[in-house]
Write the structure tokens for this entry.
Amino acid sequence: MTRIRCDRTPAWSALQTAFNTHGRSFDARTAFAAEPGRFEAFSQSAPHIFADLSKNLIDAATQQLLFDLARQSGVEAHRAALFAGAAINNTEQRAVMHWLLRNPPLAPVDTAQVATNNIASESGKVHAKLDAMLAYAQTVRADAAITDVVNIGIGGSDLGPQMAVLALDAFALPGKRFHFVSNVDGHELAAVLQRLKPESTLFLIASKTFTTIETMTNAQSAKAWFDAQGGTDIGRHFAALTTNVAAANAFGISSTFGFWDWVGGRYSVWSAIGLPLAIAIGADGFREFLAGAHAMDEHFRSAPLEQNLPVRLALLDVWYRNFHGFTSRSIAPYHSALRRLPAYLQQLEMESNGKRVDAQGETLPYGTSPVLWGEPGTNGQHAYFQMLHQGTDVVPVEFVAVKKPKHSLPAHHDLLLANVLAQAQALMVGKADAGGHKHFPGNRPSTFLLLDELTPASLGALIALQEHRVFVSGSLWGINSFDQWGVELGKVLAKEIAPRLASGDARGLDGSTAGLLARLRA
Ligand code: F6P
């Protein structure tokens, strides 16, 4: 597989010229006036999702250069390596195969095709584990005595299942409450525990490594609470979701659901880490979730770059980050059930592509991951949209809207949809006003993702779309999107500082940390 860093391709220089000659001054309003077919030309259908890209700051010629950039950087070969199970996570020598978790069982012909690598054998294991996990989920669903499911996990072992359980609340089994405890801050666990009884609670200890200090601390405290409250039968009330089954057993948990080191934490909602979702929406619902993601995998794998939605989104991301110099992207889901989507996408994109060196360790001369942030609409409109419309920085906005609601309250949904349309329109068209304060410059870019309905399948497709988009931008930037060394230093230092809070030993600390330590102990 040949990967060529984006800045070393002819297309990169051509894009620089294009930006300097007309890209910088591109005006979407003028483009709409000049191109009657702009909406059609800059929209893209993909499984379960329609994307309107036409309000972005891009013309056909620039888009073509971006496709050239993708081809010259070797994105297609890199994509093939992803789906071939190659060890593209080069700093950890791991394959990246979260897509296999949603692949149907391999047909014999497929097995023959992939005989040269480990996909066939891994696929068999995936389906055996999936069947076991879903059978367990069904048992829990049928167990009326279990009323509360508490997921203890952090990062990818929290954000994915939490986001998805909230998003698919309309499909959830009534009579079970779901709680997500991630923070080592005891306020979080204490607030949940005070509402629980041991005999009606199932704790899911979710940790890929089963070593993460926050999760282990919360799990220990949950177990201590369970014992102190007279809880019996750990086997019934605790289960572990992990690749480190031995550590879970050593912790005292015998019900375990495993997965593999080729599943990155932030890509793990499709694995045993998705158990809370499987309990909430049932085995059939979880299989639909996987099927929606698989449909997007097939789109990404097979559509030509020109009609490939993850590719088109990623190319816009690179255009904005590296040519326009925009440093963030705002996520605006116009569906309250998607309220944790921005947090989920933050980890997906910023932990994957927040890298300052390329895959070979060479310092990059250009920016990588933008800052992702956002809140559901319409709430964001009454908080920070002022800045989006009239601030000094341009922030591309990604709207997510859903055509059909799951409630029957009259008027609300049309008003919601009117708002999302109005915000996207206002950002682009702006409003001239001589007074300054009431002037809206307009020409502020946005992408509009439209789902027919928010279902397990469409949510699966939406998440897989975002995974692949992050893959493509990371591929163009020449980085390894699948490690996360940047989180290690803080973990090591926290371990080193923890005993100092008790002892007060400030030797070797910098002046600020020593001063704060002293104040905290005073
Ligand atoms: O610290 C970062 C991280 O490793 C994430 O990548 C991961 O999702 C999270 O911690 C939790 O890790 P684990 O599932 O191993 O507890």
